[in-house]
Amino acid sequence: MIRVLLADDEHLIRGAVAALLGLEADLEVVAEVGRGDEVAAAVARHDPDVAVLDIEMPGLDGLTAAEELNASGARCAVCILTSFGRPGYLRRAMAAGVRGFVAKDAPTQELAAAIRKIHGGGRYLDAELAAGAMAAGDNPLTEREREILRLTGTGTETARVAALLHLSEGTVRNYLSAAMAKLGESNRVGAFQTAREMGWI
Amino acid sequence: MIRVLLADDEHLIRGAVAALLGLEADLEVVAEVGRGDEVAAAVARHDPDVAVLDIEMPGLDGLTAAEELNASGARCAVCILTSFGRPGYLRRAMAAGVRGFVAKDAPTQELAAAIRKIHGGGRYLDAELAAGAMAAGDNPLTEREREILRLTGTGTETARVAALLHLSEGTVRNYLSAAMAKLGESNRVGAFQTAREMGWI
DNA sequence: CCGAGCGCGTGACACCTGTCATGCCGATCG
DNA sequence: CGATCGGCATGACAGGTGTCACGCGCTCGG
What we know:
- 2 copies of one chain form a homodimer.
- By secondary structure, chain A is α/β, with parallel strands linked by helices.
- Chain A is built from 10 helices and 6 strands.
- Chain A has helices at residues 11-22, 39-46, 62-71, 87-95, 110-119, 127-136, 143-153, 158-165, 169-183, 188-198, and strands at 2-7, 27-33, 50-53, 77-82, 100-103, 124-125.
- In chain A, strands 2-1-3-4-5-6 form a 6-stranded parallel beta sheet, sandwiched between helices.
- The longest helix of chain A has 15 residues, at 169-183.
- Chain A is elongated.
- The termini of chain A are far apart.
- The interface between A and B is large, with 41 and 41 residues.
- The structure holds a DNA duplex.
């Protein structure tokens, strides 16, 4: 019996996935959490064999939670289950020691297959996503660029961003310009969108 | 036995929701589709009692599909199941004759409860979402404003937007200015984000 | 009927943005 | 060690952006 922990902020979906896994004779969902920052405690308490983590979650995102588990030397294998097969996500997941990466639009049986595979010590990657990640290459943005892109991407005015980061307005514009050049976009809106699309923010 | 049609573009999630509903003795999933433009044909063929539609789908979004069903006088009741409880979505759904609206982060049992309720001729609305929709009020944007906001929101340069719509650049900027005023934002990025947040685009 | 209101469309002006040249500092490497 | 490269930071300039006043046509309600 493979003991599974499920982390996803959408309660109904979490229950649905639990129902799906419940149909498998060799899988048992032993814990469910709805926030990233509850993952570590739940793993400690229930000692699952496999943790299935969504990425977009309140508190702490699934990738950071996976990094945390890895750093603390947790025994359980981690499988990411996400809507967004963004290249940057896959990279970060691999770097965090994640062994499985499944998209929410993968075939129905794929999650159970991934869980079995990684529980056996193997890895499970969606071929499409892996190819996409290879093609996209590494994240070219620096930390400052990401930070400024994040802020301006939510509609924050340049002046406010500058104030928040204790920078001159010109400097903020310059980071945006650098990000735009790296991303091949001609304005901040496009730069933000493609950076997000790539999972680089 | 209530016959249910399921429409969601995320294959694995669709299967999971089907598994969830399969646990209910009085519900039967008779058809699944992954695209909005396949909903009408599937309804015609399988004659379900209730159609559960996601909003974000390729081909045709769930709200438009619901409008289509309503216009064609289909017998089946429609329940929207979505990640995003945006006020504008709920409004459009109500206008389309949708009788149920459930968020993907609602409690696990809520979907089955909603299906039973609307199959019995009632309505089922998430109280939180309904309150939010009331508070937000109507969509203040005109069609032109929405169109231009959509385009600039994906990074398209003003000049290109103007060319696409056969307008002067000044006119494009003016529509954006109007949208910004209506949304209480001071730049196009913020305007796009809040318009999307509200489900007004 | 006819003014009021609204959506559409435009150009001119002030201001914000994107670009460029420049400098500083720490890390890497022959 | 000195050279080189990459990240951080800034100001000046040109061009794009947000605002405003204005005009056109349509649709209501008085």
